[in-house]
Amino acid sequence: xxxxxxxxxxxxxxxxxxxxxxxxxxxxxxxxxxxxxxxxxxxxxxxxxxxxxxxxxxxxxxxxxxxxxxxxxxx
Length: 75
What we know:
Elements: H1 12-37, H2 39-44, H3 50-73
Keywords: Membrane, Transmembrane, Transmembrane helix
Transmembrane segments: 16-38, 50-69
């Protein structure tokens, strides 16, 4: 699963990149959920059908988890 030893013995640059990666993970998940559930986005993007918005949201959430997994695998 997740290895919490990744916080130990990191240089400041590596620690910053780790925190930035975690922030981007949260950003992508929130953006994906907003595409799926938030109604004002549906009104603004009325040219995109509902199934298209849901597809974009699902892809964003999946992409967020792929980035999180790759973040955990780095040395």
